[in-house]
């Protein structure tokens, strides 16, 4: 889990307005950060299956949000995938 300070640091470059915490781009940035942390954990603890299930759920949710963002605002989708280092969907 990310601390509130870490969350605000992750959301800051991707928020749409001053009090934004729930936009698709902010949520995608948070999921990406949590996925990276959990992937590191699973490399050290390969038998932790409950964390693996959580990771798969997070990846699926991030994919749904990315698909939504691509349909709604393709320019923001392109800039977000580039800034987070994700592969854009063709």
UniProtKB/TrEMBL annotation:
Function in brief: Forms an intersubunit bridge (bridge B4) with the 23S rRNA of the 50S subunit in the ribosome. One of the primary rRNA binding proteins, it binds directly to 16S rRNA where it helps nucleate assembly of the platform of the 30S subunit by binding and bridging several RNA helices of the 16S rRNA.
CDD domains assigned: Ribosomal_S15p_S13e
Record-linked Gene3D superfamilies: 6.10.250.3130, S15/NS1, RNA-binding
PANTHER family recorded: RIBOSOMAL PROTEIN S15, BACTERIAL AND ORGANELLAR, SMALL RIBOSOMAL SUBUNIT PROTEIN US15M
GO MF: rRNA binding; structural constituent of ribosome
Phylogenetic classification of the source organism: Bacteria, Candidatus Yanofskyibacteriota
Family the UniProt entry places it in: Belongs to the universal ribosomal protein uS15 family.
Name listed for the protein in its UniProt record: Small ribosomal subunit protein uS15
One Pfam short name: Ribosomal_S15
UniProt xrefs under SMART domains: Ribosomal_S15 (SM01387)
SUPFAM superfamilies from the UniProt entry: S15/NS1 RNA-binding domain
GO cellular component terms listed in the entry, alphabetical order: cytosolic small ribosomal subunit
Domain of life: Bacteria
Organism encoding this protein: Candidatus Yanofskybacteria bacterium RIFCSPHIGHO2_01_FULL_45_42
Disordered: annotated segments: 1-23
GO BP, sorted A to Z: translation
Statement: the UniProt record of this protein carries the keyword Ribosomal protein: yes
Cited InterPro entries: Ribosomal_uS15 (IPR000589), Ribosomal_uS15_bac-type (IPR005290), uS15_NS1_RNA-bd_sf (IPR009068)
Extent of Basic and acidic residues compositional bias: 9-21
UniProt KW ATP-binding keyword: no
Assigned keywords, A-Z: Ribonucleoprotein, Ribosomal protein, RNA-binding, rRNA-binding
Subunit structure comment from the entry: Part of the 30S ribosomal subunit. Forms a bridge to the 50S subunit in the 70S ribosome, contacting the 23S rRNA.
């Amino acid at each position: 889990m990310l601390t509130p300070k870490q969350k605000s640091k992750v959301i800051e470059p991707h928020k749409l307005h001053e009090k934004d915490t729930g936009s698709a781009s902010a949520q995608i940035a948070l999921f990406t950060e949590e996925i990276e942390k959990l992937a590191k954990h699973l490399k050290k603890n390969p038998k932790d299956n409950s964390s693996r299930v959580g990771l798969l759920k997070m990846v699926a949710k991030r994919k749904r949000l990315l698909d939504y963002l691509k349909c709604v605002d393709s320019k923001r989708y392109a800039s977000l995938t580039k800034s987070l280092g994700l592969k854009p969907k063709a």
